[in-house]
Amino acid sequence: MMKITDEEFDLGVEMERQCAAEQLPGAAKAWATEQDSAKAEGREPNLAVKFSLGWVLSKLESPTQRDAGIRLLTSLEDSNYEHLDDVSYALAMAHTCSGDLEAAQAHVCRLLRICPGHSKGADLHGRIRRKMEEKREQRQA
Questions:
Q1: Handedness of CA 96, 116, 12, 131 (dihedral sign)
Q2: How far apart are CA 99 and CA 95, in angstroms?
Q3: What digits encode the pLDDT tens for the residues 20-45?
Q4: Which of 31, 79, 122, 133 is the most buried (most CB within 10 A)?
Q5: Which pTM does this prediction carry?
Q6: How far apart are CA 107 and CA 121, in angstroms?
Q7: CB 90 within 8 A of CB 70
Q8: What is the DSSP string of 71-113?
Q9: What pLDDT digit, counting tens, does each position of 79-101 carry?
Q10: 92 contact partners, CB below 8 Å, separation of at least 6
């Protein structure tokens, strides 16, 4: 996989943000409907629907919405959701975009422990490490 530049990364984040904004009403409705159906049928809700809403919210620019997405995604970490690699990547991206590099680092490291060959995770790990080093250098200057 070819490394992407910071500009390409930022453009990708912005495109995801725009797509997420368009998907938010449907994702929120789907999760509310799933919770109601699961309760009425006496079953656990489909966690993939919860992940979808968490993913969408975590991509948005609003700190309140992003934090809500992070909370939904974090709740999946201790559940029986089978795609913990996706959860870890989404959390690492959300924390990177919000500027919480320590949290981003923790989630991307978890991702790489779960799935060592995750190329996007490896690229994100390198990006986070570079940003952390830049911040350290700025503080020392």
A1: positive
A2: 6
A3: 999 999 999 999 999 999 999 999 99
A4: 31
A5: 0.92
A6: 10
A7: no
A8: HHHHHHHTS--S-HHHHHHHHHHHHHHHT-HHHHHHHHHHHHH
A9: 999 999 999 999 999 999 999 99
A10: 104, 105, 107, 108, 111, 121, 124, 128
Overall residue count recorded for the chain in this entry:
141
Tokens of 35: 């919770």
- The closest alpha carbon to 72, from 14, 30, 9, 17, belongs to 30
d(CA 52, CA 110): 20
Q: How many Cα atoms sit within 13 Å of 49 on the Cβ side?
A: 16
Sign of CA dihedral 53, 59, 60, 65: positive
C-alpha distance from residue 73 to each of 77, 129, 138 (Å): 7, 23, 32
Residue 141: pLDDT band (50, 70, 90) is confident
